[in-house]
Specification:
Blueprint lengths: L4 E7 L3 H18 L11 E9 L1 H9 L1 H7 L3 E12 L5 E7 L3 H14 L8 E8 L1 H11 L7 E4 L1 E8 L8 E7 L21
């Protein structure tokens, strides 16, 4: 029996974009050697929920389907490369996404529907937590590469893994489509009687 799970909420680009990002990851590995995120499939991380009790969080996740179905799919554009600086001299190089008023509004709505309070920069990681030395090899080569590809995001994916044991790889858990369906009624009743407060 699993007592605690970690959950990862992400947006998965289409195969052509995954292949293009993998091409950059392979080239990066040839240049700087192996690195932490080398074999991770291309995705846009939205949120993580570490150390959750499945009996509590999974019904909450199930109720997200209604909220996600009301949202439209979104057209995103890869727009070159950028990087994050971390503690202890570590760096992350990523494929950036073009920030437009419409995509900014869409990500704001997604964060609201998912109850995400923290700010995040939507991106697709190329090389995560690399050393300053590796970064200094990679950045001069990749910074001016042209990467400008449009792609649609049509669904939200949730993955999970056991917090304390088992494989540390993420396993697919749920997938919810963005349907732009504003005709949906209220969220499904949980079966619990409603408490009358007045």
């Amino acid at each position: 029996m699993t007592f605690y799970n970690d959950y990862l909420v992400l947006l998965s680009p289409p195969t052509a974009i995954k292949n293009e990002i993998d091409r950059y990851k392979r080239a990066t590995a040839r240049l700087i050697g192996d690195y932490k995120s080398r074999y991770s499939p291309a995705h846009i991380s939205v949120d993580t929920m570490p150390r959750q009790k499945p009996f509590y969080i999974e019904p909450v996740i199930d109720r997200l389907e209604y909220k996600i179905a009301r949202m439209p799919p979104v057209l995103l554009h890869l727009d070159g490369f950028a990087f994050f600086e971390h503690l202890h001299g570590k760096m992350t190089v990523y494929a950036s996404l073009k920030n437009t008023p419409s995509t900014d509004s869409w990500f704001t709505l997604l964060a609201k529907e998912l109850g995400i309070k923290k700010a995040f920069t939507p991106h697709i990681t190329i090389a995560r937590d690399i050393t300053g030395e590796q970064f200094n090899l990679l950045w001069p080569v990749i910074r001016h590469k042209k990467l400008a590809e449009p792609f649609w995001i049509n669904e939200l994916t949730i993955c999970k893994r056991d917090t304390f044991s088992g494989p540390r790889t993420w396993q697919h858990f749920k997938r919810y489509a963005f349907k732009n369906d504003m005709t949906l009624g209220p969220a499904v009743n949980s079966g619990q009687p409603q408490t009358d407060l007045f």
